[in-house]
Amino acid sequence: NKWQNLKPYSIVDELRTQLKAMNRQFHFYVKQKTAMKNNLINLIDQTYPNANTYFNSPPRSDGSQKWVDFVYTYWHVDCVRKMSLNSFVKHYQNWCKQKKYIFNKSKAEEIYTKATELVPVFPKNEITKRIIRQAIAQLNSTSATVETIRILMNETASKLPEYPIVMQFKGIGPSLGPQLMAEIGDITRFTHKGALTAFAGVDP
Q1: Residue 135's closest CA among 46, 68, 50?
Q2: Residue 174 in contact with residue 5, Cβ under 8 Å?
Q3: Whole-angstrom Cα distance, residue 71 to residue 65?
Q4: Would the pLDDT of 6 be above 70?
Q5: Which of 88, 116, 144, 145 could bond 63 through an S-S bridge, CB–CB 3.0 to 4.6 Å?
Q6: pLDDT confidence of 165, banded at 50, 70, 90?
Q7: Percent share of the chain, pLDDT over 70
Q8: Count of other CB atoms within 10 angstroms of residue 118
Q9: Comparing 16-20, 43-47, 134-138, 191-195, which segment has the lowest mean pLDDT?
């Protein structure tokens, strides 16, 4: 069977070593991403409170997120409420089209209504704009790095003989699987599948 046919050889050992190194880098950049996201939210609270809560779309394949794209364009609440409602709805519709997001008129109206009730701390000027956009640039760069490493880890892990076995585990996908493989290393040292699942802490 597959389990008995797994035989270690040098190229496989090299791949496992590289996968482990990538996994360390992955977790390092994930921590950086979290810190930069929190930094941006803290800044946005001074210019456009709660704008980060307007959308819950998952990150795209390049790491970009809708709320981050939104605050890049509408970095201050006055970017919204200085327009009329109709003007903002049209502006937001064009923004959605440009960014390839689904436009929802009621969402645009909701955003506008909330904007009229907010009190920013920072003024709407060039300095504030640069502070916000610099924080966004750092977050986007780190997010892109995280996704690049995630893809590279899966590509590397897929070359290892244990990949199809690990990927059969319940709840394991192309992101978690390679991370698990990086931590486990050579699974041929486990006498049977039950020992591996016990070590990994996942259901077979």
Answers
A1: 68
A2: no
A3: 10
A4: no
A5: 144
A6: confident
A7: 86
A8: 15
A9: 191-195
Q: Using the predicted structure, report yes or no on whether residue 149 has a pLDDT greater than 80.
A: yes
Query: What are the tokens at 51?
Result: 């704008």
Angle between helices 66-73 and 85-99 (to 10 degrees): 130
Q: Which of 159, 175, 186, 189 has the alpha carbon at shortest distance from 59?
A: 175
**Side chain identity at 114, as an amino acid letter?**
K
- Contact in structure between 34 and 69 (CB atoms under 8 Å): no
DSSP label at residue 52:
G
Helix, strand or coil for residue 34? helix
Neighbouring residues of 116: CB distance < 8 A, sequence distance ≥ 6: 81
Tokens linked to 114: 């909330």
Give the relative orientation of helices 176-184 and 126-157 as an angle to the nearest 10 degrees. Answer: 60
